[in-house]
């Protein structure tokens, strides 16, 4: 196993992590921005008003994109495990 192989696997893992986390982070960011604007306009500063919509948005995105995320993870793990013999030998 060369240093190039390790760097390639690490790069692929980090890009996969970014691709999988991006939908959840984007949804939570958008909901947080909307709630913050609502709180600024109405001058209601309740902590649960900021937390609960973000939690609901994250759960909704995970419910909708969860199978896609899991498929990407399974494919990456399968490719990594299948490439172990070529890395060792």
Describe the structure.
By secondary structure, this protein is mostly helical. The protein has one domain (3-88). It has three helices and no strands. Helix 1 (3-42) packs antiparallel against helix 2 (47-82). The longest helix has 40 residues, at 3-42. It is elongated, with a radius of gyration of 19 Å. The protein starts with a helix and ends with a helix. 3% of the residues are buried. The chain crosses the membrane at residues 12-35, 55-77. It is found in: Cell membrane; Bacterial flagellum basal body. It is a multi-pass membrane protein. One of its GO terms (cellular component) is bacterial-type flagellum basal body. It comes from Verminephrobacter eiseniae (strain EF01-2).
Secondary structure: elements and pairs:
Blueprint lengths: L2 H40 L4 H36 L1 H5 L1
Euclidean distance between termini CA atoms: 8 Å
Order of helices and strands: HHH
Task: Profile the largest sheet.
Answer: none
Poorly predicted ranges: none
Shape: elongated
In total, the number of domains comes to: 1
Summarize the structure.
The chain has helices at residues 3-42, 47-82, 84-88.
Q: Which features characterize this protein?
A:
89 residues, 3 helices
């Amino acid at each position: 196993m060369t240093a190039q192989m390790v760097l390639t696997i690490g790069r692929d893992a980090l890009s996969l992590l970014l691709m999988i986390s991006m939908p959840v982070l984007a949804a939570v960011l958008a909901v947080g921005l909307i709630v913050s604007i609502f709180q600024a306009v109405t001058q209601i500063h309740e902590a649960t008003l900021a937390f609960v919509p973000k939690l609901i948005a994250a759960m909704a995105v995970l419910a909708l994109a969860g199978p896609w995320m899991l498929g990407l993870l399974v494919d990456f793990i399968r490719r990594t495990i299948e490439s172990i013999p070529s890395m060792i030998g």
